[in-house]
Design a protein that fits this description.
Rossmann fold, Serine Threonine Protein Phosphatase 5, Tetratricopeptide repeat, 543 residues, 23 helices, single chain
Length: 543
């Protein structure tokens, strides 16, 4: 491919002169770049569009000299800063494989053909093809790499040297769990563990490891008391974005910290994490005329994650639908639009509920039929499809899809709590309760709403008194769960109380009638819906 490299190309308004080994910005000023970093850039240009492994890059640039991965990581960071590639849309990290330089089509170099009439004709054909490709509407965009997090060993602030290993153990567990989570990338232990023994300069660490965020912390043991403090900082500004203190009891030599690491993970991943909120802010600050596929995804997700009513859900769906008009092949936007339709069908039950259900099923089928799905899209598609299949009473497949989604992101408490409903409808109540309890332990923010899911499981198990206790602990119980509580109260012989819960549900969603409830039947056992309808009718739910 060497013969096809143009001596000059432009990336993000930066002119790269491969012959002279220089970079210049749009105004003609030189942009400094170390010789080794430029050599890495040259090799990536030579292999443009391909995934180049770390070993291959090291062999090409250092030619037999023994260097660590850190040297390459620093070069990659230098290149991204020089090119202004903050979101890593030009120079992409391919997890566990290497790096790939994605050149814009305008920067694909031309090769001068030999003289002669035949070559002249072929050249014109090639030029015509290039023009067609260059001006054809783009159906996808280059998605940025997920944010990179460097996790440092937690420092022992106490006098007990045995706690040193605990600080490293907490950090190692977090690294392992982040590596199995969607939406973020974690820097390897052998790179990040070089830091943390002395004062932490977050910006320097971010620069040297090409990290977007740095997570550090401390541990202190005093008697039987253990305190763990964690802090997430922006590696560009050094600003602390999130911090939390965890106080636990350490009995003897046994110090359990699994629940702490799980809660830290829940604060770093998911739709309401601080990292995601930072991405939301960036997306809303982008100019409407220059929005990319990922910007539409983030804007819609911000509205969806905090939706309080059908209007919020509709606004999120409108953003994703607009994005899909610009990027019609985007599996990322298709799967999120599928979630909008599923929510309109299952949660808000509007007048077009059946159309929403059909559209959700159509979109998730399209996504799962596509090739090369990203980690996050595949996880979201399995999650969505589990509910679509549940509604169509394909329970065995629905449970398998739920399990596959959890396997892709096992520490996402919100997803685990959500998918427990699939297990409940399939009749696997005990496993569902285990998922609900685990989710609440990992993510304290969903602890209140986990009571509703637990109450529904208890109701279907016939434990109606326990179900009512769970429902009563949720201050803003949904209309659906109000009716679930009413069914348990009827089973307990308390019709007056049941009618009050039905009235509350009807006030929230007037369209939620007996027929609407029947349409939402998603139980493996057909007798369940018949019993529910009988009790709800006696409790006053309109037909």
């Amino acid at each position: 491919m060497d013969g096809c490299i143009a001596p000059r190309l432009v990336l993000n308004d930066v002119t790269v002169n491969l012959s002279a080994g220089t970079l210049q910005n749009a105004s003609g000023s030189d942009i400094p770049l170390r010789a080794q970093s430029f050599a890495v850039l040259r090799e990536l240009v030579r292999q443009r569009g391909r995934v180049v492994g770390k070993d291959a890059l090291i062999d090409a640039v250092w030619k037999g000299t023994a260097v660590t991965d850190d040297s390459l990581v620093q070069c990659i960071g230098d290149i991204r800063r020089a090119l202004g590639d903050k979101n890593r849309v030009l120079l992409k990290t391919v997890p566990r494989r290497g790096y790939r330089l994605v050149l814009p089509i305008d920067d694909v170099p031309a090769v001068r053909p030999p003289r002669g009439s035949m070559w002249h004709v072929l050249g014109l054909v090639a030029l015509l093809c290039f023009v067609i490709v260059a001006f054809w509407p783009r159906t996808t965009s280059r998605l940025p790499d997920p944010p990179r997090v460097a996790v440092l060993p937690f420092v022992n602030l106490g006098a007990d040297p045995s706690v040193d290993s605990l600080g490293k153990g907490v950090a190692e567990d977090i690294i392992s769990m982040l590596a199995q989570s969607a939406g973020v990338a974690v820097i390897a232990r052998n790179s990040s563990f070089k830091y943390g023994q002395g004062p932490v300069d977050v910006r320097q660490i971010g620069h040297e490891l090409d990290a977007d965020y740095v997570l550090d912390g401390s541990v202190r043991k005093s008697g039987d008391s253990l305190r763990i403090v964690a802090q997430l900082s922006d590696a560009t500004t050094g600003r602390s974005m999130w911090s939390q203190r965890f106080d636990r009891t350490a009995s003897g030599s046994s110090i359990q910290h699994d629940d702490v690491t799980s809660q830290i993970i829940s604060s770093l991943i998911g739709e309401k994490s601080e990292i995601k909120r930072a991405q939301y802010r960036q997306a809303w600050e982008s100019q409407k005329s220059s929005l990319g596929e990922f910007d539409y995804y983030l804007r819609g997700l911000d509205l969806y994650a905090d939706a309080e009513d059908s209007g919020d859900n509709d606004r999120a769906g409108a953003v994703w639908a607009e994005g899909l008009r610009h990027f019609p092949n985007s599996t990322l936007l298709k799967v999120k639009l599928g979630w909008y339709h599923l929510t309109a069908y299952r949660t808000y039950r509007d007048k077009d509920a059946d159309l929403h259900a059909a559209k959700a099923a159509e979109l998730v089928r399209e996504v799962l039929a596509a090739d090369d799905l990203s980690f996050e899209v595949r996880r979201d598609a399995y999650w969505l499809n589990a509910f679509v299949l549940m509604q169509s009473h394909d329970f065995d497949f629905a449970v398998r899809q739920a399990q596959e989604a959890v396997a892709l992101s096992p520490y996402d408490g919100r997803m685990l709590n959500s998918l427990a409903e699939v297990l409940v409808c399939a009749g696997d109540y005990r496993t569902a309760l285990g998922w609900i309890d685990q989710a609440a332990a990992w993510d304290p923010q969903i602890k209140t709403h986990s009571h509703a899911h637990r109450g529904n499981a208890y109701r279907l198990m016939g434990r109606h008194a326990q179900a009512v206790i769970e429902f009563q602990q949720v201050p803003d119980l949904s209309a659906y769960m109000n009716l679930s509580a009413a069914i348990s109260l009827m089973q307990l012989g308390k019709p007056a109380e049941a009618r009050r819960w039905v009235a509350s549900a009807s006030g929230m969603q007037p369209r939620l009638t007996l027929s609407r409830w029947a349409e939402g039947d998603c139980y493996r056992d057909p007798q369940i819906i018949k019993t529910e309808l009988a009790f709800l009718s006696r409790a006053g739910l309109a037909n």
